[in-house]
Amino acid sequence: GQSLEQPSEVTAVEGAIVQINCTYQTSGFYGLSWYQQHDGGAPTFLSYNALDGLEETGRFSSFLSRSDSYGYLLLQELQMKDSASYFCAVRDGTGNTPLVFGKGTRLSVIA
Amino acid sequence: DVKVTQSSRYLVKRTGEKVFLECVQDMDHENMFWYRQDPGLGLRLIYFSYDVKMKEKGDIPEGYSVSREKKERFSLILESASTNQTSMYLCASSSSETQYFGPGTRLLVL
Question: Which residues of chain A lie closer than 8 angstroms to B68, CB-CB?
Answer without folding.
Answer: none
